[in-house]
Amino acid sequence: MTSIGDFMARSHKQCDDMFARAEQAARRDDWPSAAAEFGEFREALAQHITMEEDVLFPALEGATGMSGGGPTAVMRMEHARLRALFEQMKQALGARDAARYPGLCELLVELLRQHNAKEEGILYPMMDRVLGAEAAGLIERCSALDPRRRGD
After folding, report:
1. What is the per-residue pLDDT for 148?
2. Within 10 Å of residue 136's Cβ, how many Cβ atoms?
3. Distance between CA 104 and CA 3 in Å, rounded?
4. Residue 78: helix, strand or coil by DSSP?
């Protein structure tokens, strides 16, 4: 059986790979490809966040009684910061701003590195401990939210 941590870490890796392709295209000054790759990355990461915020976080909060604070509140705040950064990146890509986009990429990489480390090192192991008996059902619900995984 796949753990929540393994399932979500795989999702992080897939998103990281998509973002790397967008960065590579921008470095080649292939702005149409960079925009397309960034769009795919953004959609995949938005779906990942939806799995967390709509399925996993509520399950953990319900099981532990924690709400309005704690690690899920911190993750939600970081998700909001990522969404705001995505908008800036989308604008820089649309403007083909070779001066601004790389700096935004560096910021995103650092934010995701820190964010993913907290999730993979603290939050997902907590979920596996607290929600382990429900893992299969939660993973199934997460997968059902992701149109790229339907029919797998």
Report:
1. 62
2. 13
3. 33
4. helix
CB-neighbour burial class of residue 89 (10 A; exposed 0-12, middle 13-18, buried 19+): buried
Cβ atoms < 10 Å from Cβ of 152: 6
Nearest to 51 by CA among 83, 11, 13, 84: 11
Contacts of 111 (CB under 8 A, 6+ apart): 78, 81, 82, 85
Task: Note the pLDDT of residue 146.
Answer: 72
Quick one: tokens of 110? 């650092």
How far apart, in whole angstroms, are the C-alpha atoms of residue 85 and residue 107? 9
Would residue 97 be called left, alpha or beta, if left means φ above 0 and alpha means ψ between -120 and 50 degrees? beta
- CATH among 3.40.50.150, 1.20.120.290, 1.10.3730.10, 1.10.150.130 for 4-145: 1.20.120.290
pTM: 0.91
Residue among 151, 123, 141, 136 nearest 12 (CA): 123
- Report yes or no: 2 and 139 within 8 Å, Cβ to Cβ: yes
